[in-house]
Structure formats: structure tokens, C-alpha cells
Amino acid sequence: MAVNKHWRDFTKNLAACIGALSEDEYLIIARKGANQYVQFAGQGAYGIRAEAAGNGYIEPPELLLDERQYARMQRLGWSRPTALPDEPCALGSPNFFTQMLPTEVGLRELARRTTQTFRTVYGVAHPGMLHYEAFHSQGTSIRFPTLLIKRRVPEPVTPRIERWSEESDDLELDHDSDMELGFD
User: Which segments show compositional bias classed as Acidic residues (predicted)?
Assistant: First the structure.
């Protein structure tokens, strides 16, 4: 089965990439064309924080998880979301979440859990249906070519702001592209 080999390779490579994350570095693996993702945050001595999208963030709506899928996430080892997206949440998350020490066993388990999440919960048939984004908290982009999936390069902020200002009557940029925000 070629598909299973691709998933095995993806899982092995993902474990190595997660293990390469330093403190304040992030890796997000997402389904192309949808907001179903698993994201990893390097937390130095505290290990790796991982979150998988819960219904508060999943789009389009037809991909929202049902109670059976929530139960599957728990069986895979994820903690259930503890808050809604706009609620403060110090220790939990509006997403499914887990914390893992970056040991060889822990990294393999986290990669396996991620693969099973994409395959059995989010319904992703092949790793080629995924893409990734990786960066440092200071904005530096990070490449993981060994993932063997497409790298998503986000649109730079300046063109987004210019587009928003063109689409809105209330937003205007000055001569050096600053935006004046008025408060009434």
C-alpha cells in the first residue's frame, strides 16, 4: 500500500521536525483548503505544546467534528478543549491540546498522534493533502523540506493592509503606509 508508506514516512519525518523546534519556534501542519490543523510550539525546558483544531476554529462548517470524533481525539491522547476561542484560558486551550517532553519516544508518539488525527478524525487521505508553515516568534520563517509536503508561505503583512484599506472606506494609509486609527 503506497498510501500507508507515505503516511509512515510523513510520521517519521514529522517526529524529527518537531524535535528540531527550539524555544519560541512554531510548526503548523494544516489540511489544504480547510482550517483543520495541528500546531506545535517549542517551549524549551517545558517541552513541546501541541494543539489540534477544535470546532471553534474548524472551517468550513461541514468539517466540524461530531461527538464521536471528539471521543476519538480523547482516545488518541488529546485533552478536550477547555474554553471557547474568545475566552481567556491560562492552562487549557480552545483546541484539543497536549504537552510532551522532547524525548525520542515522546516525539514519535506526538507524530503518530498527529498522523492519526489527520487520517481518522479529519479524514485526510494522503499527506499530499497537507501543507506546513514554520516560523520563530520574531517572524523568521523556518523550512522543513524533509516533511515532503508543500510549504505555505503567508502573504506579507503590507499587501494585506493595503488590500484592506482599498476595500474599506474607513481605512486610509498615509505617505509611508502607516494607518491612522481614530477612536471616538
Answer: 167-184
- Chain segment 76-102, per-residue pLDDT in tens: 999 999 988 887 776 789 999 999 999
Question: Which of 67, 23, 27 is closest to 147 using CA atoms?
Answer: 27
Please answer whether residues 17 and 111 qualify as being in contact, where contact means their C-beta atoms are separated by less than 8 angstroms: no
The side-by-side arrangement of strands in the sheet containing 25-31 is 96-100, 48-52, 37-42, 25-31, 130-136, 150-151
Instruction: Write out the H or E segment, with its range, that includes residue 5.
Output: helix 2-19
What is the C-alpha to C-alpha distance for residues 95 and 37, in angstroms, rounded to an integer? Answer: 10
- Tens of pLDDT, residue by residue over 5-43, are 999 999 999 999 999 999 999 999 999 999 999 999 999
Whole-Å CA distances, 155 to 104, 159, 160, 165 = 35, 7, 7, 16
Written as one letter, the residue type at 13 is N
What's the gap between Cα 95 and its chain centre? 10
* CA distance linking residue 2 with residue 51, whole number of Å: 28
